[in-house]
Amino acid sequence: MSEHVTPESEVLCTRDGRVGHLSLNRPRAINALTHTMVNLLQSALDEWADDDSVQTILLTGSGERGLCAGGDIVSLYQDALSGDGREAARFWADEYRLNAAINSYPKPYVALMDGVVLGGGVGVSAHASHRIVTERSKIGMPETAIGFVPDVGGTWLLSHTPGELGTYLALTAGMVGAGDAIALGLADTFVPSSRIPELIALLATTTADEAIAAVCALAPEAPLLAERDWIDAAFAGDSMAQILDRLKNSPLGAARDTFERIASKSPTALAATLDSLRRVVHLDSLEAALRQEYRVTLRAFLTPDFAEGVRAQVIDKDRTPHWIPATLDEVDPAAVTAFFEPLDDAELDLPDRSPRAAATTS
């Protein structure tokens, strides 16, 4: 592969010694993923998988704000308003295939989850073999805030966190820092941001494990993990109404504040998210989770709440979305169940893969 280093490239693909370096390059948008970026990442990974001179993959983000703020929801919003959803479906299909390819990649894949890492940014990093966080990391799945549902394998990741912490994060659209990201299984190792240049230099000359070991440090505290007792009690079960009732009537101020955060979200998105998390625990692979997410994503995209949520949070920024339906009591359980029904000929074409062979050997 020839190196792509022109400033206008949305992904910079370069080589330095033994490392193939992928840098997301839309810093003004905090490197939000476009369809072009997804395809460039997949192409580079496909080529480097068979290149013996590339021993390690490194993923970083351009600019100072973060690795990736998620998918390019403005483009998806425009498709929701004027299109039939086909372009959105193509984008998600390719994005989810990329997420699965990262998870099963045959070489060490080092993701620098520095700064903001949200939504689609989690998809290209948290499935990696080596996941690095810094004191600047802010990691989350904010989909319910825009009337949507966690995807890119997010339901798989959040369902494997300790207790109900993943349910809490999904329903609140919350973010965690480095300590909690490691404690919840969303990341592996803490590296101070001041040592990132040293890490990048080491990756060019030594194995991923050796390079990371040379610069890592003790992870910060995990404040969300410390709240697990009341979160587990409040978020247990399959009833969204019961969860909200527990939070609203809790003697704990943190629980009542959480009620207020969740109550402002799309009722349909909340119901579909909780159902997604409860169903995914019965699946046996990330690939199966992605197939389920694809069904739910396409159905959620067609509801009024996605376009309305993006309008309120991103386009007009008035922060006053008008959800349809407006309350949980009005959400038809059958309509949510229909989100999970097979797509017939439109199912996500995603073969099951063997677990990565090189992740632990570097």
From TrEMBL:
Database matches in SUPFAM superfamilies = ClpP/crotonase
Record flagged with keyword Isomerase: yes
Please give the catalytic activity noted in the UniProt record.
Answer: 3-hydroxy-2-methylpropanoyl-CoA + H2O = 3-hydroxy-2-methylpropanoate + CoA + H(+)
Q: What are the BP-aspect GO terms?
A: L-valine catabolic process
Q: Which GO terms describe its cellular component?
A: cytosol
Report the EC number(s), separated by commas if there are several.
Answer: 3.1.2.4
> Which residue numbers delimit the Enoyl-CoA hydratase/isomerase domain?
19-340
Keywords on record: Hydrolase, Isomerase
| Example GO molecular function | isomerase activity
Q: Does the keyword Disulfide bond apply?
A: no
- Residue spans making up a coiled coil are none
* PANTHER family with a match to the protein in the record: 3-HYDROXYISOBUTYRYL-COA HYDROLASE, MITOCHONDRIAL (PTHR43176:SF3), 3-HYDROXYISOBUTYRYL-COA HYDROLASE-RELATED (PTHR43176)
What protein is this chain from? 3-hydroxyisobutyryl-CoA hydrolase
